[in-house]
Amino acid sequence: MENKVAIVTGGSRGIGRAIAEKLSESGYDLILNYRSREEEALAVKEMLEAKGGVVEIVQADVSQFDDAKKLIQFAKKRFGRLDVLVNNAGITKDALLPLMKEDAFDQVIEVNLKGTFNCMKHAMRVMMKQKSGVMINISSVVGLMGNIGQTNYAASKAGVIGMMKSVAKEGGSFGIRANAIAPGFIKTAMTENLPENVREEMLKAIPLKDFGTAEDVANLVKFLASDDAKYITGQVINVDGGMVM
Ligand code: NAD
User: Fold this and answer.
1) Rounded distance, CA 185 to CA 23, Å?
2) Which tens digits make up the pLDDT trace of 67-114?
3) Which residues are marked as active site?
4) pLDDT number for residue 32
5) Most exposed of 75, 138, 145, 235 (fewest Cβ within 10 Å)?
6) Nearest to 175 by CA among 117, 233, 120
7) Does the predicted model carry a pTM greater than 0.70?
């Protein structure tokens, strides 16, 4: 039986890298997308290939419509199919609303929301034709509850939830499932520069009294991508130590 094929956007580091590793080690043929860190993407490819995985790296800025098209079409050309799309690429540009520059709003929406649209749109055509597929959007608890200094990011992360629910409705009769994951505080480059007092305050609000790891998110992606989740679609699942309930 041929392997299933997965694309992970923004997969050269952090949560995306952990997802890429988990899917490759679970037997998926993997397309690892990166925007600028070619060396890191290559290192992940080589590491996974050494373990027997089939891994291709594809440079694409997902916020660019044609780049996203090229990324999705690569799956068709190279493997003849696309089974799983994980929309992980994301950025933050934090500022309190009165101080937030228009550009900071636009850039975050362009990558997090438009980038997810670009990839889902092109993937939908492939998955509709093959009458199967799974899409997983990496949202955030911030998209559910808002956050000081993150009006742009919260809007983008709430947006990818609305988009996912619409795709779940459009895709259901084609055997396509779509779900979102809302991570809480996960230890990655995105969060490592937060001041100590902010980290302490956040810990107080987490019932499990710890921050999450990228692998905690990757484990859920693996489950949602698999047939064990064949009756789950249109859902947002938090990986947040109980922070939001
Ligand atoms: P990260 O900054 O380590 O990784 C983000 C990745 O996305 C990077 O590899 C980056 O190069 C890539 N990327 C950015 N813009 C891109 C573009 N235009 N095209 C292609 N790739 C692009 O951050 P992370 O913590 O690993 O975050 C991964 C995802 O998880 C993001 O969507 C983030 O919003 C979300 N998230 C993270 C946390 C957390 O606590 N770390 C919490 C909730 C949600």
Assistant:
1) 22
2) 999 999 999 999 999 999 999 999 999 999 999 999 999 999 999 999
3) 153
4) 98
5) 145
6) 233
7) yes
With helix as H, strand as E and coil as C, how does 110-171 read? HHHHHHHHHHHHHHHHHHHHHCCEEEEEECCCHHHHCCCCCHHHHHHHHHHHHHHHHHHHHH
The first and second tokens of residue 233, run together, are 């679609």
Q: How far is the CA of 17 from the centre of ligand 1 (A)?
A: 10
Please work out whether the CB of residue 63 comes within 6 Å of at least one atom of ligand 1: yes
- Ligand 1: residue of 7, 31, 35, 150 to mutate (most ligand atoms within 8 A of CB) is 35
- Chain segment 180-192, per-residue pLDDT in tens: 999 999 998 878 8
Q: Do 45 and 55 form a contact (C-beta atoms < 8 A)?
A: yes
CA distances from 192 to 114, 138, 187 (A): 26, 19, 7
pLDDT score, position 1: 58
